[in-house]
From TrEMBL:
Family listed: Belongs to the ABC transporter superfamily.
Keyword 4Fe-4S: no
High-level lineage: Bacteria, Pseudomonadati, Bacteroidota, Flavobacteriia, Flavobacteriales
Protein name: ABC-type multidrug transport system, ATPase component
PANTHER family linked: ABC TRANSPORTER ATP-BINDING PROTEIN, ABC TRANSPORTER ATP-BINDING PROTEIN NATA
Leader peptide range in chain numbering: none
SMART domains registered for this protein in UniProt: AAA
Pfam families from the UniProt entry: ABC_tran (PF00005)
UniProt cross-references to Gene3D superfamilies, sorted A to Z: P-loop containing nucleotide triphosphate hydrolases
Amino acid sequence: MGISLHHISKSFKSVTALKDISFDVKSGELFGLIGPDGAGKTTLFRVLTTLLLADEGTASVAGMDVVTDYKAIRNSVGYMPGRFSLYHDLTVEENLNFFATIFNTTLEENYDLIKEIYVQIEPFKNRRAGKLSGGMKQKLALCCALIHKPKVLFLDEPTTGVDPVSRKEFWEMLKRLQQKDITMLVSTAYMDEASLCDRVALIQDGTILEIDTPQRIIEKFPRTIYNVKASETYRLLKDLEKYEATHSVYPFGEFLHFTSKDAAFTSEELIQFLEQEHHTEIEVSEAIPTIEDSFMTLSKEHSNNGN
């Protein structure tokens, strides 16, 4: 009951939204689609949920073709779009009953599946959905997506605009749902959420850059990364961008993350260069690579290859 894509491409006039996308999501897997805004995540979700036809390629969800079996797929999947799309003027309870009726079921029939989530929003069941907090809206939307006990769940940037505590709670809920044999495809622009997935696909400009477990993607990182800091951050960035030894440099929290073209490069060389440029309060230390570093490097290589 997984997801399979083979050479999916989609264009909107002169804009290529998806370019030769192929990957499989195993049954019961929590699979992340990780990339920035405009990378093609939502377009891919719309193809897989039968809301958009691909120009090329084939795809199946829970063993059903997204073109020929679109009606059956719509009854077998849950879809939670990025933007809150429930009825603002209906109460929490009315929204749940409405979506249950559409799928010819009831809240009581599938209560076991949504119980852990529903108990958190039940105190607000008579409140209009539009008046809920961001975190509560997401929990309600998740309940509505699960109301018919779907085989596959699509979550398009579910934590965008949600506070850090609610984000953590939401991912904990997804982990518990995974234990109930629901296959999940989750898209996000938050790189730190990649580590919470079983496997991830990194996507940029409609192209898949890498597919693997988060840990293996990080282990493949090919260069030494340095945390770099000085008193004038903007000038530091500009000076490092023009430094002949620079392979990549970009902001990362309070530091800049720097990699060199030369495998034998040392931190002493970097400090010497910064001192020559009259920087002060210089800090340079070796950093542990993250999924964001891997994405930035793969994205740079993708751009350099002319894609």
